[in-house]
Amino acid sequence: MKSSCINFANLAWWCVNALRFGTLFPTIKQVAPSDKKRLFVIGNGPSVNVDIAGLEDSLSREDVIMVNQALTSPLAFQIKPKYYVLMDPFYMGIYDEKAGIDFKSRVDALNEAFVKVDWEMYLFVSHIHYKKRINGRCIEVENNFIKICTFNALELYSFKSLQKFFYRHNFAIPSGINVLIAALSCGVVLGYKEIYLLGANSDWHKQLSVDSQNHLYTYDAHYYDGGVPEKVFSNYTVAFVFKNITQAFRAYEELGKMSFGITNCTSESMIDAFPRISLEKVLGGGGK
Question: Can you tell me the distance from the alpha carbon of 41 to that of 18, in angstroms, rounded to the nearest whole number?
């Protein structure tokens, strides 16, 4: 009885958010189904350097999603991802210039990379962020090879059968707390039967420090940073950050329970929600 009440309440809250921030017609659903049954979602964790070494050419023949700043690295131009996902609102120009992070330089670097794309690529962005984008501060895509599509980033945890239907048809996703959850959710909507996850170290707890003034810092590590993680000041408390980490792992767990065919190929990953397999085995014919 209690769980049913919670599920109804969550569904009611989703309805409110859907009216305010969602759309019944996210353009991601207009993307034609691929003739391939599997998709590779590549995050930006340091493990990418080890896990795909020597397999770049094989991945270039697969359907791939890459995310965030990946396009500013040579690897993206070697793999030529079919899809690209942006989740952070700063890509749409929505950010505080006093936040202590140079968001503008990240947007500028990505804009420069967009110009160089010479293959057909779908760029997926959150509907609500795209709707609120601030021209002059947001990404600028003036490349005919790139088609922008929107997706709903409305969170929903409710009755499992309804929840699965909503995820599959992009009326909702488990969480918009990080870009990999959004990317996996996009893969589900695109209809892939097998989704393989890479670069998902997700060991954020190892990337935190607090100084003697109780200032919290994160050390954002990526495969393209040359082994030198970026030290970033955070305006949030440790409790708030760990709450968000918990939300991310809950979202992964929900996706894992839904039988969407997601497998984790990341060699060093804290995510325990999906089966594990090496990329080498998948590409060698040992996948599902």
Answer: 27
Q: Are 71 and 108 in contact (CB under 8 A)?
A: no
The DSSP element (H or E) to which 146 belongs, if any, is strand 146-151
pLDDT, tens digit, 9 for 90 and up, residues 6-50: 999 999 999 999 999 999 999 999 999 999 999 999 999 999 999
Q: How far apart are CA 245 and CA 113, in angstroms?
A: 30
3-state secondary structure of 147: strand
| pLDDT tens-place string over residues 133-188 | 999 999 999 999 999 999 999 999 999 999 999 999 999 999 999 999 999 999 99
Nearby residues of 201 by Cβ (< 8 Å), 6 or more positions away: 43, 45, 46, 47, 221, 266, 268, 269, 270
Give the length of the chain: 288
CA-based torsion, 244, 250, 252, 254: positive or negative: negative
219-264, pLDDT tens digit by residue? 888 999 876 788 888 888 999 999 999 999 999 999 999 999 999 9
- What is the helix, strand, coil percentage profile of the chain, to 5? 40, 15, 40
User: What is the predicted pLDDT for the residue at 288?
Assistant: 56
Contact 145, 171 (CB under 8 A): no
Q: Are 63 and 219 in contact (CB under 8 A)?
A: no
Backbone angles phi, psi at 277, to 5 degrees: -160, 155
Read off φ and ψ for residue 114, nearest 5 degrees: -55, -40
pLDDT at 97: 76
Nearest to 185 by CA among 236, 254, 139: 254
Q: At what angle do helices 160-168 and 238-257 cross, to 10 degrees?
A: 90
* 93 touches 110 (CB < 8 A): no
